[in-house]
Design a protein that fits this description.
Oligomer: heterodimer
Shape of chain A: globular
Strand content of chain A: under 5%
Radius of gyration of chain A: 17 Å
Structural class of chain A: mainly alpha
Order of helices and strands of chain A: HHHHHHH
Radius of gyration of chain B: 22 Å
Structural class of chain B: alpha+beta
Largest sheet of chain A: none
Strand content of chain B: 5-15%
Shape of chain B: globular
Helix content of chain B: 40-55%
Largest interface: A-B, 72 and 49 residues
Number of strands of chain A: 0
Helix content of chain A: 55-70%
Number of helices of chain B: 11
Chain lengths: 165, 323
């Protein structure tokens, strides 16, 4: 890849546009763990190196979300990851306690449900769109969403919230 | 509650230090122009790898050197570039061999020894995509062929290789068929000796069975004949079968079997055109095992008989703009 293809402006523009999106996905999977830095950097490297011509910003964003989710999953699949307690030492910016509870509940979900929760509730993708993005059948997405929602409800009620998610 | 989640997550922001560190690294690495995937291993991951290497050295000293340095199985990746990986008992790639000129082309500049199979195959497929060996129209085929006499190992190997392939294809947004097969080590050795990729040789054998042998499975004795066939001209082209693209060989196999509606049971949406063919014969029925003489392991050719073919759908969820 020639340097002329990737100039400093493109790098800054990509970072400015997507830093928070990528970081939030990393946070959901990895909390404040130092692995976030590696995934974060790698995702941007991939984005800037790819020769895909994105048809729209939505297309680019969906690509980025998918790559970030996959990178995070590769980390949490690792053998030593199982011993890590994600909720320990999570630092949150100033949140009101209710918001904090919701975030902690999302962090505590089994890894396999995090993507559907993020895509559905945060990015507001539809189920068919999620199916395309995650390469799963719509039925699978529906049942994962259902289970994730149920888990969220239970955990939130445990924290004394009205858990309609 | 949903709103609360959105608000809460909105408050999580990438910290400045990380962003500027990333920016510096991107400028640095992309400006160098000598990008290799191995460079992606930075910081912690690299440290972990150093640790892994150190651990392996200890193993080596303790007499585990045999397990580390001897390939217990092989995996050939065929697109048209053909590449073979030698894999040790620990599931690490310990040798990489280009099996044709295109294979040499994609291997130049990438270092994958020491990696896990999934990672290594991902990098190979990624390099093939970067160098234009995979078509964007979904017509390409990536064939993964494990050569081992251990069934469990074969399953793990093809699974890892498939995961790596699918991830690389998704990342490049290239729809392609991914097919898998397992052959015995003896057949792999024979193909290598003949100078043909074992994966491709396996497909050529399927084609030979379908076109020259009335759909009857080949035996050990047929090998010379199949080899002759492999080195014969492929249809109108000036290439031999052995020099042809995997996708063309697969297409020829499908076209031949189509007559006998052998694929019907295996079809998925990638092969819709086969579905409505009238049923004619039973040779080469799905699930049929190859007879390979003295081979220790049954050939589990999942490529065609079992129809374990997948197709990456192009991503349509991407269309919507949301920011």
């Amino acid at each position: 890849m020639k340097f002329s293809d990737i100039d400093n402006d493109r790098i800054s523009a990509a970072l400015q546009k997507y830093s928070d999106t990528v970081y939030r996905i990393c946070f959901i999977y990895l909390g404040n763990r130092p692995e976030v830095d590696d995934v974060f950097q790698e995702v941007f490297l991939k984005l800037l190196q790819k020769k895909i011509s994105f048809t729209s910003t939505g297309h680019e964003k969906a690509w980025l979300i998918r790559v970030t989710i996959n990178q995070c999953k590769d980390v949490v699949k690792g053998f030593w990851w199982k011993r890590i307690d994600l909720l320990e030492n999570v630092e949150l910016p100033e949140h009101d306690p209710d918001e904090r509870d919701v975030l902690m509940v999302v962090l505590s979900l089994p890894q396999k449900y995090k993507d559907v929760i993020y895509l559905y509730y945060y990015q507001e993708y539809t189920v068919p769109q999620m199916g395309q993005l995650l390469k799963r059948s719509e039925n699978t997405i529906y049942s994962q969403l259902h289970r994730a929602r149920e888990l969220m409800r239970q955990k939130l009620e445990g924290k004394g919230h009205e858990g309609t998610f | 509650m949903k709103e609360r989640f959105k608000l809460a997550l909105d408050r999580i922001e990438a910290d400045e230090a990380l962003v500027s560190k990333t920016e510096a690294r991107l400028i640095n690495e992309l400006a160098q122009g000598q990008y290799s995937r191995t460079k992606l291993m930075n910081g912690r991951i690299y440290e972990m790898r150093k640790f892994a290497i150190a651990a392996c050295m200890v193993l080596l000293l303790m007499g585990g050197g045999f397990a580390y340095a001897t390939p217990t199985s092989y995996l050939s990746v065929d697109i048209n570039p053909s590449v073979e990986l030698g894999i040790n008992a620990l599931g690490q790639v310990i040798s990489v061999e280009a099996l044709n000129a295109d294979g040499e082309d994609i291997l130049s500049g990438i270092g994958i020894t020491g990696m896990k199979v999934k990672e290594a195959v991902g990098i190979i497929v990624d390099a093939a995509a970067d160098k234009g060996y995979l078509n964007n129209d979904g017509s390409s085929v990536v064939s993964l062929t494990a050569a081992t006499d251990d069934k469990e190992k074969a399953d793990q190997l093809t699974k890892d290789a498939e995961e790596g392939t699918e991830a690389a294809l998704a990342e490049n947004e290239i729809p392609a068929e991914v097919s898998q097969a397992t052959i015995s080590k003896a057949r792999r050795d024979a193909a290598i000796e003949a100078g043909i990729s074992p994966g491709k040789m396996n497909l050529i054998q399927k084609l030979w069975e379908a076109t020259e042998n009335d759909g009857v499975a080949a035996t050990e004795d047929d090998f010379d004949e199949i080899l002759e066939f492999a080195n014969g001209k492929f249809g109108e082209s000036d290439k031999t079968y052995a020099e042809s693209n995997v996708k063309d060989i697969m297409k020829a196999i499908k076209a031949t079997r189509k007559d006998a509606k052998l694929d019907a049971a295996n079809t998925n949406d990638s092969e819709k055109d086969d579905v409505n063919e009238p049923s004619k014969g039973k040779a080469n029925a799905p699930g049929q095992q190859l007879k390979s003489g003295t081979d220790d392991v049954d050939d589990q050719d999942s490529t065609l008989p079992n129809g374990k073919i997948k197709k990456n759908a192009p991503n349509k969820a991407d269309e919507e703009e949301q920011e």
